[in-house]
Amino acid sequence: MWLSSWLAMLPLAAQVLAGSGEKSARTDENGIRRIQLRTHTLAPPYLDSDMQSRWWDFGGNTIIRADQYIRLTSDRPSQEGWVFSRLPLTATNWEIEIEFKVQGNGNLHGDGFAMWLTKQRAQPGTVFGHVDKFEGIGIFFDTYKNNRPGTVFPYVMAMVGDGQKPYDKANDGKDNEFMGCSARGIRGASIPTKAKLTYFQDKSLKLELMYKQEDQWVVCFETTDPPTIPSVSYLGFSAETGELSDNHDIISVHTNNLYDTKKKTDYTDTGKGSPKAGRAKRKSKKSQKSKGSWSWFLFKIVMIFVVAGGVYVGYTAWRAQRQRKSHRF
Question: Which of 94, 101, 138, 323 has the fewest C-beta atoms under 10 angstroms from its C-beta?
Fold first, then answer.
């Protein structure tokens, strides 16, 4: 019994050791390296074996269908639902790609859903199912036009909240808008609908949408003067329905930490920007990387010995138990 229990743990130990590396990392043609953040990623079946999620909380009228979607609201009046990360997103540069679906049976529909990066988490409220006067940034996928002449709906817009200013719901957030765009075909599209938000601290913020044609991204907005997003921000999604309704589904969420591998060496601090100082800085980084590699290698060796020791102890106990049983007879 002891031996079988320890042997069963070997694949799990191997998975932990392998999963701790950067196998999910990849670098594109522009030199941007992406490393997946599992803590902020959602994909079917969404829940663990005990029907819970290690990294996310769900609430309101949210329904989870493990093989298809996380439904924030069903196509029924007066619903609200949300899903929020348990840990804050602390990466300096990141990319969040979501696949979603908004559809329903009625000719009239509403109200929409939102993506959040805010200090507040899991707090229901009146802004697409989330609390008003938030601090951070909200991306609103608004499908119902209240009072905004000259604007084509559905409309996607970003609002930067300071914790004090309320959302102007009566006018579809016109006075709150940071940037936005019309996206007429985003509801009920025949292809997978997606949004991708990319952020480089103090450098750029860009929102891209996919709804016209599969694998074709359309830039909704982009700026080289991005807002300051709180260093401790939780990633979340919420939706609401009023008298009019829709199904608001989150299909998947993929979050990556971004690194610019082509970034030039910064010759600062020592040597007044001299090449010698730069070489010293690179040498120091190389030494730190080497030390980190050795530390990881030693950690693996220690873990292997721990697992092997556990197997040996379990086998010894099992063998002694068998011998005691044989002496009885």
Answer: 323
Closest CA relative to residue 86, chosen from 141, 37, 20, 34: 37
Q: Which residues pair with 69 in a beta bridge?
A: 65
Q: Which residues contact 74 (CB under 8 A, 6 or more apart)?
A: 61, 63, 245, 247
Per residue in 230-251, is it b (16+ CB within 10 Å) or e — as a string?
Answer: beebbbbbbbbbeebbbbbbbb
DSSP state of 40: G
**Residue 257: enclosing H or E segment and its boundaries?**
strand 247-260
CA-based radius of gyration for the chain: 25
284-329 per-position pLDDT tens digit: 555 554 445 555 555 666 667 665 666 565 666 656 665 554 444 4
The label of the residue with tokens 């043609």 reads: 29
Q: Which residues contact residue 76 at a Cβ distance below 8 angstroms, ignoring those fewer than 6 apart?
A: 241, 245
Cβ atoms of residues 227 and 178 within 8 Å:
yes
Residues 111, 247, 188, CA angle at the centre, nearest 5°? 90
- C-alpha 280: how far from chain center: 37
Q: What's residue 18's pLDDT?
A: 36
How far apart are alpha carbons 209 and 101 in whole angstroms?
A: 13
Whole-angstrom Cα distance, residue 196 to residue 208? Answer: 5
CA distances, 193 to each of 45, 99, 213, 294 (Å)? 19, 6, 9, 44
pLDDT in tens, 32-88: 999 999 999 999 999 998 888 999 999 999 999 999 999 999 999 999 999 999 999
Six-digit token string for 183: 């996206």
Amino acid 31 reads: G
- d(Cα 303, Cα 284) in Å, to the nearest integer? 29
Helices 2-19 and 275-328, packing angle to 10 deg: 170
Q: Which residues on neighbouring strands pair with residue 101, listed in sequence order?
A: 249
Q: In what order do the strands lie in the sheet with 112-118?
A: 56-60, 80-85, 234-240, 112-118, 135-142, 155-162, 177-182
